[in-house]
Amino acid sequence: MATDVITPQPEFAGILRQQETFASGQGDDVGERLNSWFDRLMLQAGMEIAPAMVLALCLCSGATVGGFVFVAQENLLTTALASLLGFILPLIVAMIVRSRRQTTMMNQLPPMIDELARAAKTGRSLESCLQLVAEDTPAPLGTELQLCTRRLALGMPLRDALEQLPTRTGLVSTSVLVTALTVHRETGGDLVKVLERLSQTLRDRLQFQGRLRAATAASRATAILMIALPPAVLMFFTFRDPEYFNNLMTSQWGRTATFTALMLEFVGAMWVMRILRNSQRT
């Protein structure tokens, strides 16, 4: 007697999961917000690695760099600074990957919306148009769209299927697209005209942001230099002469001045990064 064997498909894993992140970030707890930021970073960077594994990688990186520095210099302060640098190095890499991925998706959005409008002109259903566009759009945006279309194929409503797209991409533009599609599904209207206007708006926005980045390149470079220079100078003198920083920390005035400078450096760095993020937000 012949029997049919159903082989599990790994690409369907997590399709019906309501929330892809592990922390909500809706509470007032600082730890909960930090966990939420870390989970969103991994999700939006497109890394198929569990956040716990990345945290373990950060710990291993910090221990490895700190161990090498301790063997070379045998100084606890230098080792602590090197361990901190090694710990945050994977996070810096993840943020760079996320930024490049978001830039790629932002450049893919206008052509994708144009193709969606052309597919809608043929009289196809919205689900069929999304399926066609998801197959033709390259990664990384195509990968996110294919996840949404697989959810639609499993019978999920359009709003629920597209709900996680803005969170997974981290782009405001995808939130606008999802809102336009869900409103059209609920109220109707000329979808083709809405998509064409949205595509043109995104192109104009990209052109404006390109001119803005070109006009403020010198200011952004100066801001980044001002943030990176004090820690770089401190690390240079600490590695070159370990007793340099130890002598500073022996007096009360030196400790007060050092901790005040570190606090002001941290506040200034957060302020500058917030300004840069708001000026480049898409």
From TrEMBL:
**InterPro entries documented for this protein:** T2SS_GspF_dom, T2SS_GspF_sf
Instruction: List the transmembrane segments.
Output: 49-70, 76-97, 221-239, 259-276
Q: Name one GO cellular component term.
A: plasma membrane
Q: How does it sit in the membrane?
A: Multi-pass membrane protein
The Type II secretion system protein GspF domain covers 113-237
| Localization annotation | Cell membrane
Q: Where does the protein principally reside?
A: membrane
The protein's UniProt keywords, in alphabetical order, are: Cell membrane, Membrane, Transmembrane, Transmembrane helix
Superkingdom, taxonomy of origin: Bacteria
Question: Does Transmembrane show up as a keyword for this record?
Answer: yes
Recorded hits in Pfam families, A to Z, give: T2SSF
PANTHER family on file: INTEGRAL MEMBRANE PROTEIN-RELATED (PTHR35007), PILUS ASSEMBLY PROTEIN (PTHR35007:SF1)
Q: What is this protein called?
A: Bacterial type II secretion system protein F domain protein
Species of origin reads Maioricimonas rarisocia
